[in-house]
Amino acid sequence: MDKITLSKMQFYGYHGLFPEExxxxxxxxxxxxxxxxxxxxxxxxxxxxxxxxxxxxxIIKEIxxxxxxxxxxxxxxxxxNKLLGTFDLLTACTVRLTKPNPPIPGHYESVAVEIYREKTx
Length: 121
Fold this sequence. Notes:
CATH architecture: 2-Layer Sandwich
Number of helices: 4
Number of strands: 4
């Protein structure tokens, strides 16, 4: 299966369990892999045979910068569901959501979740 990859998109959101995360917010990084057949797009050179990267970015931005969630797992799930529901050509996607410098005891560069979802028939 072919794929389109959007890497290291950065957004500012208010997700987390701690009150300071919901009040102050923080940066989130998102990577998305979109699985679809790109043969027609490669032959036709027509945007209608692919998925517009800018639209994908705007959907992810709206979710990450929108309503706060306790868990980044929930944010990733909303992203995957919205992408699969929006783009007819999309058959599956992987969403990786990273929270740099999480406010939890210990020394971490980041924590992340990665989910893979497929379109159901």
